[in-house]
Design goal:
With about 300 residues, the chain is of the alpha/beta class. The chain contains 12 helices and 12 strands. The radius of gyration is 20 Å and the shape is globular.
Length: about 300
């Protein structure tokens, strides 16, 4: 039987803040547990407002921050036991990040294709210039771009949507089992958000990559997620199937989030009323069918 790809058991993170005589503890993440099965690629979404602890949780999953309590297992191995350059390299090949602001993820003085070629050199068997470009081009084509479109270009010469897709392509080059995407559409124009979240569905279905999608945007979460957890002040207040939780939330905080973003459909389904392209298209149709929206890659 295949075990979990990722498993969190009672994970907490506590920070100390204040001066020498007035220090206090602040628990950013409080006793979070969940698992993602290895044989069930999915988009697992962590929803919460600013300060809910979702980014701290993402950084712990990426092994950038150590939990104060609890354990994180990836493919059965405790992340705390991963020591040395080789172990970190193996983990980095399997688990790739995508960050919130693509313009901060790339050096403005470095051409973006150099990032792709270096990633290919570090994490694939490619060695010649032609092989490295081919590896980068394969990844770019999966996100609707090509090496010819980005070769020699600096970050400011690409749009935010293009640059975020380059970041996703770079994450794909090592062939990861899991991608941790922290607010990947919050800095992208509303009209382009669906092009990004549709990529996540494609990666899940075609490449069998699990995506941990960190967001405060219920509209895109409703559209793209298989399972979700909702966080408030470091705690998970609700979890389960995305459709079940977002259409019929039980916790008062979840209900408050829904009331701010979702409005009831006369047929009994939640209809998105956020500012994403998905919600705009849903409102334009007399019978919204969110599942049937086509990708809008630009």
């Amino acid at each position: 039987m295949t075990g979990p790809l990722l498993q969190l058991e009672g994970v907490s993170k506590t920070y100390r803040r204040g001066g020498l005589f007035g220090r206090e503890e602040f628990r950013a993440v409080d006793n979070v547990s969940f698992r993602i099965e290895d044989n069930e690629p999915q988009v697992f979404t962590v929803i919460g407002e600013s300060g809910s602890g979702k980014t701290t949780l993402a950084r712990m999953i990426l092994n950038m921050v150590r939990p104060t309590a609890g354990t994180i297992f990836f493919k059965g191995q405790d992340l705390a036991s991963m020591r040395g350059a080789r172990a970190r390299r193996i983990f980095m090949k399997d688990v790739q990040p995508i960050f919130q602001n693509p313009f901060e993820a790339f050096n403005p003085l470095k051409r973006v294709d150099r990032y792709l070629l270096m990633t290919a050199k570090n994490f694939t068997p490619a060695r010649s210039s032609a092989q490295l470009e081919a590896a980068a081009d394969r990844a770019l084509k999966k996100v609707g771009l090509s090496i010819g479109e980005v070769r020699g270009r600096f970050p400011h010469e690409l749009s935010g949507g293009q640059l975020q897709r380059v970041a996703i392509a770079r994450a794909l080059i090592p062939g990861p089992s899991m991608i941790v995407a922290d607010e990947p559409v919050s800095m992208v124009d509303a009209s382009l958000r669906m092009s990004i979240v549709n990529l996540f569905r494609t990666l899940r279905d075609d490449l069998k990559v699990s995506i941990i999608y960190i967001t405060h945007d219920l509209a895109t979460a409703y559209y793209v997620s298989d399972r979700i957890i909702i966080m408030r002040k470091g705690e998970v207040v609700e979890s389960g199937s995305a459709r079940v939780v977002l259409e019929n939330p039980q916790h008062s905080y979840s209900q408050l989030l829904k009331s701010a973003v979702l409005s009831p459909d006369p047929h009994g389904r939640g209809v998105l009323t956020g500012d994403s392209a998905a919600s705009q298209q849903a409102r334009a149709s007399p019978h919204p069918q969110i599942d049937n929206l086509e990708p809008q890659v630009r």
